[in-house]
Amino acid sequence: MGLKLDLHTHCYEATMCSSVNAVEKIVNAVKARGLDGIAVTEHIDKDYGYRVKRIVEKRFDGEVLIIPGQEINTSLIHVQVVELYLSDNATFRFVAHPYHLTDFSRYVAAHAHELHGVEIENFQHRWEMKQVNREKIRAVAEEYDLMLLANSDAHSLGDIGRYYNEVDLGELHKRIGRKRCKSKVTNE
Fold first, then answer.
1. Residue 21 to residue 150: CA distance in whole angstroms
2. What are the phi and psi torsion angles at 19 (to 5°)?
3. Please, which residues bridge with residue 40 across strands?
4. Where are the domains of the chain?
5. Which residues share a beta bridge with 4?
6. pLDDT for 14
7. Residue numbers of the chain with a pLDDT score lower than 50
8. Do 40 and 52 meet the contact criterion of CB atoms below 8 Å apart?
9. Residue 187: helix, strand or coil by DSSP?
10. CATH superfamily of 3-178
């Protein structure tokens, strides 16, 4: 059985700092949802996730798993990619909230060699995602061997874990191993 993980959150936007008190609120929110952990995927400051991880490990004995990451804009206005920085310098990449299917399909076709997953559910963008043909997302995911994910994209502590995945970290590493690539998404 896998870990319950929300792999797309914006904790800095929720707390506006990385103090011990703010991180305690994050830990409590994760535990209140019954999750094993989250990925902290800020837009601008990828180091924020690492700071939260260090505080959780040092002050909270690693009560929850924190995966540092970042949400990155691509050259296509409707496509954003999330990078998760796992152990052994492994980077798991997925397309976030693919509600514009034309740009999503075009981006995946061009970058399939460096992608490992795609969100099929996203709480923050649930209204846009309701309009999406999920069968199209599934077909593209199957064609390019992408893991289907459900994440909160939480911008508040109360939204953490609204959607989450049950996944084994070994499965993320296995998918990375099948598609080794550079450490940063390109903006072509």
1. 28
2. -70, 165
3. 9, 68
4. 3-178
5. 166
6. 84
7. 182-188
8. yes
9. coil
10. Metal-dependent hydrolases (3.20.20.140)
